[in-house]
Structure formats: C-alpha cells, structure tokens
Amino acid sequence: MISSPEAPDDGDRHADDVSPEEFLRYLLRGSDGKVTAEVVAAAREEYGIPRSTLFRLVARFRKTQRTSSLKPRKRGTQEGMVRLDPRTERIIAEQVEGFWLKKEKPSFAALMRRIGEVCLTEGLSPPHRSTVQRRVSELIPIAAARKRGEREIEAASTPSPGQLSVAKPNALWQIDHTIVDVVVVDEQYRQPIGRPVLTIAIDVCTRMVAGFHLSLAAPSRTSVGLCLLHAVYDKAAWLDERGIDIPWPVAGLPAVLHCDNGAEFRSRALAGACKEYGIKLLFRPPATPRFGGHVERLIGTMMGAVHLLPGTTFSNVKIRGDYDSEGRATFTLRELEKWIALEIVGKYHQRIHASLLRPPLAVWRERQGEVDFDLPPDRMAFWTSFLPGDRRRLLKDGIHLEKIRYWSDALSRDVGRGAELEIKYDPRDLSRIFVRQSDGRFVEARYRNLAYPPVSWWEWKHAKKRLRDQGRRELQEDVIFAAIAKQRQIEDIAASSSAKARRSAARRPTKQDQKESGHVTAIDLAKSVHSDDDTEFWD
To answer: Integrase catalytic domain: which residues (predicted)?
Structure first.
C-alpha cells in the first residue's frame, strides 16, 4: 500500500472505513496523481476496480479535482437519462400537461388510459405505469397542486420561511367567519334549526380572543361590526349578564384589522368605518389561508372543542358516520354563545399557548400597559358606522326606504330644505333607521306607523318578491306588512315539523334585539347629545 505524509498507512485505513472514491484519492496523492502499477494493484485488490475503469476515473478527476468524480458509476441507465422513444416521451408530457393538470382532477388511471389510447393511435407501445408515475413525481408539487385545484396539497407544499411578528397588543387583529360544527335548536320547540355562523377576532401579539359574534345569518358587514363592537369595548357587563365570573380584559381599537377577501370585508361601509376610527384594513392574498394562520388555528381550536357537544356535525361526513346530529342537538343559540364564551375565557385564555409558551391571559396582563384605551366615546355611533347606508330625501311624511316611511320629530327642522340625508340601517331589524342631519349628528327614526312589527331585510325582500310574482306591481307598505304577517303565521304552524320554518322564526327581530343591538348584549349604548325635545342623538 502506498503511504504519504497526508494519508494514513495501510494499518490505519481499510476499505470498510472509507468509500472507493476517498481511497482512490489517497492513492493518487501518494503517487503524485499518476496511475502507477502499485495504484492499479491496490484499486483492484481493495475494490475490484479494473485497470481501464481506473484510467477513466482518474482522467475525470484531473478535470474536476473533486472526490465524487472518482466514484465508479453503476451499470445500466444513468440518473437523468431517458431510454423511452422520444415520441412516447412527448405523448406523456402532452397528456400530463393538457389532461391530468386540470381543475377536474382526473385520476391517475384515467391518465394512463388516455396515454395508452394516444400511443396506440400513433403505433407506439404504451409506457409502463411506473414510467408515467416517475414523470408525474418529477413535477413541482406546488405548481401541479395549483393547476389541479388541490388546496390542501398546495398549502402543504408552500414554503413558510417566516412568521408574523407584532410589536404590542392591539397592533394587529385577525378576523374571520366559520360555520360552527354543531346544530342548534330553537327556543320554543327545542327542535333543530341548523348550524350558526361564528365571527371571531384574535389579537396576534397576545393570542387573546378580542371578541366574537354568533348568528343564524350569513356572514355580513353587520356581523363584522357586531364582532368588533364586542371586541373593542369592556366586556364586564356582557359576562355578568351571562353569569360568567371570569375576566376578559381585552379592549381597545386595533391599529390594523387583518382579514380575507370576502365581500363583507370589502364593503364600503366597513372601509369607511375603519377609516373613521383609524383602523387600517389589511387584506391577505387570495386563496392563501396561511396568511391568516392565527385566526385559522383559533377557529380550529374552537371547532375541536365543539366536536364534543351533542349535535356536532364533526369536521366531515366520513368522521360523522351514522351519528344523528339533528336528532341529538340540544343547544339553543344563546346557550351555545355562553358555552363558547366559557371555552374562551375559562380554557383557551388560561392554557399555555404552544407559540407563546405562556397563557394568553398572562401575556395580556403583562403588556396591557402598552395598550391605548382611548375608545370612541359613543358606542352606538361606533356600531352604526359599520352598518350599510344610503342617501334619501326628506319628504313631508318622512324618509322612504324600501316602501317604508320613517319619521322622527327631530327631522322636522330639515323638512323643505330638499337636501339628501345619509341614512344607516340594520338589515336584521328595519323598524328603525339612523339619519345623519346637516349638523353631522345621527337621529333615530322609527316606523311612521308604530303598529307595524319589526321585520328583517330578508323578510321584506321576500314578501315584495312574492307579491310581484302574484302580479302586484304597485306595492304599499301596509300590503307588504300584511303579507309578512301571513307568512309568519304559516311559518308558526309549520315550525313544529319544519327546520326551515323554525330557523326563519328564530331570525325575526324582536324588541329585545333592539335593546341588545343584536345578540351582543349588555353593551352600554351611551348617547353623546340630547336635544331639547329629548330626542336621542348620536355623534
């Protein structure tokens, strides 16, 4: 064995200790890079490398000076080399790109059949299944998943090198909606009426839940506003009304509200309200749930807890199996709201968070001195700013909205001026609107005919459509209200057997809803100004 000052002698180095290429490099160092008879003999003895192969390896090594170039190549097709007929390769590539990478997500078996048919048409032998599988596996995973519409695979293949870092509490909130994985029952018959929608906001810095709103209505700018109303102001009275004696100290305006691209977040009403109160709206890129990861994980945590409740629908049909979600449902909407509140303040806020390594409540208390609690002084005005609006002219008999006439004595000073006034309305309850007067303050206007019951926007629109379908073109408010009364009678009769009718009845506005400004109750709706005639105004 050749030895040198740089290489161990024969007694210190064996074939079991080093790879063939390392061994050959030591041999060449000892022979000044020459393939001597001793080098040939040693290579044959230790690794069985033929003389001709050794000369090829050494020639390659002299060009690169890299140890890997001395590694003997395996017999057979080298990595990266293709032995298929170029025409067959072309067919595979065309069918993978033009057939398999489609939103319809054709199966691999369908791809094999398509390739086989095209090959036979061109007089070629179809490729083996493993050959096509290798070509598919060589695709870039994220690009292939995006073309096939496979969101889960795309998300798993997308790199996430960093994480969202927030300097202090209330610097950034994330907000989102989800359909709750549990069926609720109505208050009267205790029969199933469907799954509610949860709107929830989280403070990214402390991972505290800022607030939430639970409703039977679809996600809307109103539900966003009610969630923020609950999140921004003190929740002591709200918790006390539900008999919950656990602190929930989150309050204050967020600097940034991070949300997805849903229509309710893109509304002009939400944009205007956020601008009015200095909240910056930040939208995450479309179809990228990872950019809202904090609220997504929070929703996952809440739904995991909900899956233990009677009436749960679980996360998918396969897991649910033959479980009768509607038959086992027991929670009303208000009971579920209280249960979720307890889950948040009694468990989630108290447990050690995986990212913080501390409970969110402890982090908030430690850093709450950094929070700016300079809140909007008028809570009703804050909530009203998130409502949809329009402009209407004040007539002698009041303001007309959707065939309904509204009046307030405070409007009399503006009659005859001919100017259009800005109005705001709550789609869940059309019995009142909020009118901005010329001095910039809002006044509440109610039905001119106070005998009419509170109705929702959905009920009103549905009644008008029914009447028009019956050929009624000239509609008056008394006719529409009469139609709604009849529809409610039908719903009440059907409520004992129809979940849809029970759900419709449960969504009707009530006087209690007016007091609570929706299902978020015990909010101090302080008025900022009173006029001489005791009419209530809001700045």
So the answer is: 165-368
